[in-house]
Each structure stands twice: as structure tokens, then as C-alpha cells.
Amino acid sequence: MKQDVAETGPDPVDSRLGARLAELRAERGWSLGELAERSGVSRSTLSRAERAEISPTASLLNRLCSVYGRTMSQLLSEVEAEPALLVPAAEQQVWEDRASGFVRRSVSPPHTGLRGELVEGRLTAGADIGYDRPPVPGLEQHIWVLEGALDVTAQDVEHHLDTGDCLRLRVWGPTRFRCAGPDDVRYVLAVVLP
Length: 194
Hints:
4-stranded antiparallel β-sheet, 6 helices, 10 strands, 31% strand
């Protein structure tokens, strides 16, 4: 049974993430209002995320990553200790967007001097996640479906991927990941900075 946040306090990852988001805004000298204008996210939502009163969704993090010029993995890696060269499965950071049915495992997190990273994504049947912009324009992505089926829309073109299929693309605009079901989908996302 899930405990109330007031009883247990905020999730430690959400607390570190909120603090990092506040640092990034402060580094630029932006008010919450300025960040709201740049990101299209309300001031109240930004404030609550920075104070770890809410667990940010994938869509919210994507908008902030776009404003700050980072991939989601880069942002999430900034709230962890320096990543080791070997990342045992038990130590790979897992982040969950419960609202959308999305689970993200940072298999090979960003590392200084490397441009690529690997992410394992899981979407529950019926999950539908849209990103209004890439975190970094021209970001290279390779999406390899391990189990299930995934529909990916990029540049207004929908691609249907079955188990074993791989989609390669550069992301310049909105994207959408959808698991129509009936089963969940598990896929690998290889991300390469331009």
C-alpha cells in the first residue's frame, strides 16, 4: 500500500531533482515567471517540482531539459554521484512516471567525454507519451523494441515497431511514444548527442 508523501516525506530522487532544477534556474538568474515563459509550464508547477512537492512527469522534465539544453538522462545523472564505467544492473537508476505508465532505466548513463547513452523504456498497454520538442535539437535516437509493439511519431510520420524492429532518427520536433497494447512494451533507446 502506498504511503502518503506527508507521512514519508518526498522521494529522495525527487528531492535531489528539485534542488538541481532550482540550481539550474538560479545559475541563469531566471525567476519562476521567466522559466514559465520559456518552458510553457506554470509557475506553480515549477515551484512545486523544485520543492519536491510533486514528482515531475516525463513531459515536464522534457520541457525543462529543452530549456536547459540537456537530455533527460543528463539531468537525471546530475542528481546522482559521478557514474562509474561499469554500471551493475542493481545500481542503474530507475525513474517512473506513474501518471503515464512509463518506466525509464538509465542502463548506460551520460558520462563526461561520451556522446551516447542507453536507456531501457517500458510503457504499459495504453500508455501514450508526447514530447513537444527534443531536449537537444538534432538529437540522434535509435529505438529498438525488445518485447511488444511501439508506435513512434516523429516529424508527423507514424512508425509501427514490433519486437526486434529498430527505428533510427534525428529528433527536430515533437515526438510521441504509444503502446497500443494489448501487451506492455519494453525497448532500448540509444541517444547520441549531435
